Amino acid sequence: MRGFNDPNALQLASGKSVFHQPDEVSADGYLLPFHLDTSSSNAQKLPSTNHGWKTQHESWNGGKMDNWLPAHRQADKANGPYVMGHFTRADIPFHFALAEAFTICDAYHCSVMGPTYPNRLYWMTGTNHPLGTEEGAMMGNRPPPYGAKWKTYPERLEEAGVSWKVYHRETKKEVTEGQMDTMNFGFNVLGCFPQYEEAAPGSPLNTKAMTPSAEDQFRKDVLSDSLPAVFLHEQDDMFDVLKRTALRRGLDQRPPEIRRQKRRGESGGGDPCSVSEQAAAGQGKVQHLFSIRIHGI
User: Fold this and answer.
1) Is pLDDT at 167 greater than 80 in this prediction?
2) Which of 178, 187, 209, 283 is in the most buried spot, having the most CB atoms within 10 Å?
3) What is the residue range of 224's domain?
């Protein structure tokens, strides 16, 4: 999307722009995008709206792009309208700075109108196996019980002699129904593939893709100029690392009463470390640090 003033925005059958999303619940019969103001609300702690295959395709509605509110109200109930919310530069300045400094893809879209794992499979292997026969295409956050079996991007890099590495955190066992049996918090989907799961210790696939990295390994490799030619960054726990670093360095600018509540284990009406509370209090430094959540570079 090129902004709310885009003169070429899709026109709906109603004659209004695509931003006027039909909504029977709204008095006007539609809902426009609205600002999630972090200076006056807890807007950065909103729950995630559904981005599964079914909901996304229902929102798309065969290309009509007119069913976002009905689809999300059905999937997310009272949280459905949040799908129309947006932030401004003042709300998330660090993310704007990152986008302006590093983004190289204009009008970028995800590979699959669906959830995390299919898109990470495209990112890390080039496909979600849409023409698969035995295991079929992966459209949700559950791999086939017998594992994914196609050749992956890192394997091709290894064969070509190109240096690579996956930075990810410790693997854990998941017991929640519908989730991967073995995964890590960073969603290293290479664990879906037998050639990685069964790779011998010390082998390239085991060492570079399946062996967890120390939480500060990426930082060390950047500072020492020893990053591989291609790297996949899965350490979303960098958020926690940066938060702890900020507190250790005396950047905790939360009001004293909030810090005391945290030490006593009191909730104080919400997470005293939340981004939104920092934003509401105008605590810029910590807000910037707390905003970082790295999923992939």
Assistant:
1) yes
2) 209
3) 116-235
CA 76/CA 94 separation, integer angstroms = 28
Tokens 């600002």 found at: 35
CA 132 to chain centre: 26
User: Quick one: pLDDT at residue 46?
Assistant: 87
Give the C-alpha separation, 279 to 258, whole Å: 14
Check whether 196 has a pLDDT greater than 60. yes
Q: Which of 227, 200, 199 is nearest to 213 (CA)?
A: 227
Rounded to the nearest 10 degrees, how much is the dihedral formed by the CA atoms of 24, 26, 28, 30? Answer: -70
Total-model pTM: 0.69
- Written as one letter, the residue type at 173 is K
- How far is CA 13 from each of CA 24, 62, 156, 162, rounded to the nearest angstrom? 16, 13, 46, 50
132 and 67 together in one domain? no
Q: Above 90 in pLDDT, residue 163?
A: yes
Of the listed ranges 52-66, 151-165, 180-194, the one predicted with least confidence: 180-194
Task: Show the tokens assigned to 194.
Answer: 């037998």
Given a contact cutoff of 8 angstroms between Cβ atoms, the answer to whether 32 and 40 are in contact is no
Q: Which residue has the tokens 């290894």?
A: 158
129 and 189 fall within a common domain: yes
Question: Is 108 contained in some domain?
Answer: no
**Spatial distance between the Cα atoms of 169 and 188, rounded to a whole number of angstroms:** 9
120 with 228, same domain: the answer is yes
User: Mean pLDDT, the chain, as a whole number?
Assistant: 75
Q: Is the pLDDT higher at 184 or at 167?
A: 167
Into how many domains does the chain fold? 3
Looking at residue 78, what DSSP letter applies? G
Q: How confident is the model at residue 136 (pLDDT cuts 50, 70, 90)?
A: low
Tally the C-alpha atoms within 13 A of residue 128's C-alpha that lie toward its C-beta: 22
Q: Are residues 160 and 204 in the same domain?
A: yes
